[in-house]
Amino acid sequence: ADGSDRKDILTPPKSFPVTTQPADAISQTAWQQQAATFTVKPEDLAPPAEPARTLWIAFDSNDNNTYGSLIDEVRLLPVEFKARDQFSDSFDPPLNGDVHTPTGAKDEDDWVAWTSVDRTGGYNTNTKTKLVFSSDSAASMFELAVANDSLQFITVQPTQLTTAETNLTIHGLPGNTIENATIEVRAKGTTNVVARLRVLTLPERNPINCKFYRVHEPNENLATLTRIGFYPVPTINSPVAAPGPAVSEIDARMIQAGVAVSPGSPITERVVDYEPNNGGNGALDTDAEFAVMAQKRREGVFDGACNIIYIADLDTRDGSLGYVDDPASKLVFISQNSWVDYDDFHPDPKVLAPEDRRGASFAMTRVIAHEFGHYLEISTREEGKVTPTGDHDVGKYPAGTVPLMRPGPDGGLGHWIRHEDWAKASETAKTRLQ
Questions:
Q1: Is 115 within 8 Å of 92 (Cβ atoms)?
Q2: Residue 299 three-state SS
Q3: What are phi and psi of 386, to 5 degrees?
Q4: pLDDT tens digits for 390-411?
Q5: Could you tell me the CA-to-CA distances from 361 to 411, 412, 417 in Å, in that order?
């Protein structure tokens, strides 16, 4: 750390000090252009570590100035914010090559890592993030600080760094607005910033009252239900997720957006004639039929702020396991038939499937959480059927998990939600409570 063991380290020229330029906004190309003036050739450079915009730091042993470089050949000092667990809950790293849709635009803040914290309530302490250096001695040359414009939003501990990996504790400070805060890695005793972590601070929302229903048509009969895959007639014991586990899964996924739900009741049976012109076969599959269900919600037949409705059969172009037709209708539909009718799908494993690196598409509770995301009009990456946002997330994502809002069972439904969706979910939750 004092330079005595750095005989082969090439000191960057003093014309490139990193004093005001944010380290996370410097492109790899720019650094390679600068590196062309060194004795190390750009084509000899190793590719940067993942994520692609890792900063490399060097010190001039003569005057202790701090410089930035991506010259992997000379084995300088990397610094990087990372998630503390493999599933990356509440952590959104910079992802090389990621682009937004449908606009194609990209916010410069996407080139830094993000995490989230509530400003009040049960998630106002975030322990999801760590700071990683190449060695203890490298870490000791830096300190953490909350940016001056963020002091009213968060605190961070520790501020003094002594080990290569430091687990961070970020505490949200009270407030009722969504705010972007910043944590800075500074050269010790200076205001020189070499890396930043963005923190989305979220107001705690009141829990969304989530009620569960099983809907039958008035002319359902044994022959009809046997044809679509049920025997005997669906009862309270049919293979569906109970409210408790479903709500727990929604809470576990949405805590990173500051959103919580509460179960309003056990599963309640309802009889609704939603397809009188279709012979009563139990399939919910047309705009007119969804309109009938939405009208029943307005009439008070379904009276939760969110209503999870188990339907005998669901058949839409966008999904057969679960579906949200219009987020403002406050209706989330889950098909019972789709969970038992496929040769290789069986109720028990789909209800109880464990998490793995491919997601948990075969867990009914995870599908409910995914559909709840549509109810909150995420993902923001694609337009919804009737809303500006609210479809699927097909963008890049961190290794070790997949997005909760990824489409289809083959895509896998993981833990991860990107930072712009944290904000959208929080904003929509407020309107759902009105």
A1: yes
A2: coil
A3: -130, 10
A4: 999 988 888 777 889 988 654 5
A5: 8, 5, 15
